[in-house]
Amino acid sequence: MIRVLLADDEAMVRAGVRAILDSGGEAEVVAEAPDGREAVELARAHRPDVALLDVRMPRLDGLAAAEEITRTVPGTAVAVLTTFSERAYVARALSGGATGFLLKSGDPYELLAGVRAVASGGAFLSPKVARYVIDGLGGSDGGGRLAREAEARARVEALSPREREVLALVGAGLSNPEIAARLHLVEGTVKAYVSAVLDRLGVRNRVQAAIVAYEAGLVGR
């Protein structure tokens, strides 16, 4: 079972999300928090597989809580579940270490898939925000995009052929077990490759690595 920490300041929302997770039979909510500060404390106490956080919460907002959990509870994957999809929220969540960004308006199956993906070491973005992330977290101007693409290609050139292959699969959204099966490697070896790729690219998580892969042309548009 995937152990989930759920943080939202509305009890009715927490009840609905918990019911959806229970219905999937793969996840269980082990702790609930009505604000970001308590979410951080419960994450430290329970060490859940996934912390599912709303953005707007009292005491400490979900974005700050995501950063704190990522920093202090590295074994917990963080996903944001919110009504709001403003670019500033997406950018800060992902740059702060979240590997999932889900919208409450999405299908329940999207929520289940997102929790499953981030728990397995992958990344998941609501389709409504995925295009924005793919476009590089800011600016659609041609010159800026060309500059980002050139920079991404230069960074990818520093990787070994196998590391580039792994990066391409990360960019395609595959989890470590899926990459291992695709490349006929053991999962531990894939984890080592992914860690090396993140380190050499200078990125914090798989979503940021996926953006580099996309801009470098390793993933089809």
TrEMBL record:
Which keywords does this chain's UniProt record carry? Answer: DNA-binding, Phosphoprotein, Transcription, Transcription regulation
Record SUPFAM superfamilies: C-terminal effector domain of the bipartite response regulators (SSF46894), CheY-like (SSF52172)
Return the Pfam families for the record: GerE, Response_reg
Indicate the segments forming the Response regulatory domain, all copies. Answer: 3-119
Start and end of every HTH luxR-type domain? 152-217
Q: Which residues carry this modification: 4-aspartylphosphate?
A: D54
Q: What protein name applies here?
A: LuxR family transcriptional regulator
Species: Streptomyces griseorubens
